[in-house]
Design brief:
36% of the residues lie in helices and 15% in strands. The mean pLDDT is 94. It has 324 residues and is an alpha/beta fold. Helix 3 (106-114) links the parallel strand 4 and strand 5. It has helices spanning 50-64, 80-92, 106-114, 134-151, 162-179, 195-207, 261-275, 281-296; strands spanning 23-25, 35-40, 73-77, 96-101, 118-122, 154-155, 186-190, 212-218, 255-259, 304-309. Helix 5 packs across helix 6 (195-207) and helix 7 crosses helix 8 (281-296). The strands form 2 sheets. It has a 6-stranded mixed beta sheet. A 4-stranded parallel beta sheet has the order 5-4-3-6, sandwiched between helices. The chain is globular. It is built from 8 helices and 10 strands. The N and C termini lie far apart (58 Å). This is Tryptophan synthase beta chain-like PALP domain-containing protein.
Length: 324
């Protein structure tokens, strides 16, 4: 067969690297009974799960005509959505400006700008570096909306964009179902915009109504559970903002699980030390919650629990004071 007719596995762009991430069993970290299966979303080209929603939101905006070819794009981000959008906009040729709190890890700004985006870092209102509150996010949003107006740009608006959740209903959920051989007993995930939880839980419950789905919330910042906010500052960047996200839907949730900063750090470290995977704090929280669920008696002790490893731990390395 001539070289021109041979089949190959060459991808046409980084966009084809998004999704189809593997699932790994965390059998060394949790020895049972039951099993924890983790979707390796840090293996997306932007090193987080947000690549999926970035591609979905931009593609649907282009298809609808809301986003014209070569037109500028603006988004408010805690970092991961910005990195995902930077991947997509680099390939599709859209100038991208991102606003992000100075409380979010500086590595994310480096990542976004390395992909050609501009990152405007906004001073914090009440949080500290590594701890971002809802008030900090509102300040970032105000700056971002001003830039949208100045540039006459397309505003992605991840917290209110249905294509965010659609990405996970159309890709992540079906992948989980296929990769597990249709063996899912429970699903647990932290919530930022709620896109991943809403899309995945909806898809899984359509396959089998008895699959249990649980939201993971930072201890003291549990509005989905219905508790008052007593600890707005926590380590779970990109989640637990102290409000119920506009995309969230209660009908596909069976309950909530609370995780402390200490538990998130403990399991973040264990994922590295036992499984050889360097991930971020929400990933640690997700696995901590999966362990809690299996030990709680709320599901059968031999259940298979699926969760998400949202992003790479390389996004959280300590930063020198001069960059703060």
């Amino acid at each position: 067969m001539s070289p021109s007719k041979q089949e190959n596995e060459i991808k046409s762009s980084a966009l084809e690297l998004i999704g189809n991430t593997p699932i790994v069993a965390l059998d060394r970290l949790y020895t049972g009974p039951g099993r924890i299966l983790a979707k390796c979303e840090f293996m997306n080209p932007g090193a987080s799960i947000k690549c999926r929603s970035s591609l979905s939101m931009i593609e649907k905006a282009r298809k609808s005509g809301e986003l014209k070819p070569d037109a500028p794009v603006v988004e408010v981000t805690s970092g991961n959505q910005g990195c995902g959008l930077a991947v997509v906009c680099a390939v599709l040729g859209h100038p991208l400006t991102l606003t992000m709190s100075k409380g979010n890890s500086y590595q994310r700004a480096i990542h976004m700008e390395a992909l050609g985006a501009k990152c405007v870092r906004v001073p914090q209102v009440e949080g500290t570096y590594g701890n971002v509150t809802l008030a900090d996010v509102k300040a970032v949003e105000k700056v971002g909306l001003n830039i949208v107006e100045e540039q006459n740009a397309y505003y992605v608006n991840q917290f209110n964009n249905p294509a965010n959740a659609d990405a996970h209903y159309e890709t992540t959920g079906p992948e989980i179902w296929r990769q597990t051989g249709h063996h899912v007993d429970a699903f647990v995930a932290s919530v930022g915009t709620a896109g991943s939880f809403v899309g995945i839980s909806k898809y899984l419950k359509e396959q089998r109504t008895d699959i249990k789905t649980y939201v993971v919330e930072p201890a003291g910042a549990e509005p989905i559970k219905g508790d008052p906010i007593t600890k707005p500052l926590h380590l779970l960047q990109g989640s637990g903002y102290g409000c119920v996200p506009n995309l969230f839907k209660f009908e596909n949730m069976d309950g909530t699980l609370s995780v402390t900063d200490e538990e998130a750090v403990k399991y973040k470290n264990l994922i590295g030390e036992k499984e050889g995977l360097y991930v971020g704090y929400t990933s640690g929280a997700n696995v901590a919650a999966a362990v809690k669920l299996l030990e709680s008696g709320m599901i059968p002790e031999n259940a298979w629990v699926v969760t998400l490893l949202n992003d790479s731990g390389l996004k959280y390395t300590p930063v020198p004071q001069e960059y703060m």
